[in-house]
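Progress report, Aim 2. The chain analyzed during this reporting quarter is listed below.
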Amino acid sequence: YYLAQARASLQQYDEAIASFEAARKAGYDPGTCSLGISEVQRTKGDPEAALQTLDELSGAVEQTAGYLHQRAATVAALGGKPEEVVALSDRAVDADNENCGALFGLAVENDRRGNDEVALELYQRAAARFPSHVGALLNLGLLYEDRELFNQAQRCYQRILDSFPNHGRAKLFLLDVQ
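Predicted structure tokens for the chain:
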């Protein structure tokens, strides 16, 4: 399972899916593995396959923050109704108010609607979790810049570069606030 996570973060998508399937066969929670597969499918640009993977799940997993977040992200990737994305993201945060992906997804939706204060608070909560979501740190940094809180923005970008030294956007944004 952790090998699958590592491969997904390295954008080795086919290998990640194979590792999630191997983890499932080895006895790791099948629902968790399917959620990982769905995320990889969506991330690699196949949201239709991701939705199909989610549709094959049933039972208690459908009430988890991980499932609800993956469904929201997949609906968004498919260009679905923003109201559905927000409702699913809200349910995900209600199910687990510390789920980084759910917090990030809900923050993005609020950010898109101009709800800057709500988005800021959600990005801050997502950034406070480990591991922090890179997108949450980038967007939080941008919101800090909008408020002329350049030291805080710089810390967000530096946190990304501490883990991903070649992250182009973080490098560029960091140059802007120095």
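The chain has a mean pLDDT of 94. The chain is about 75% helix and 0% strand. These observations will guide the mutagenesis work planned for the next reporting period.
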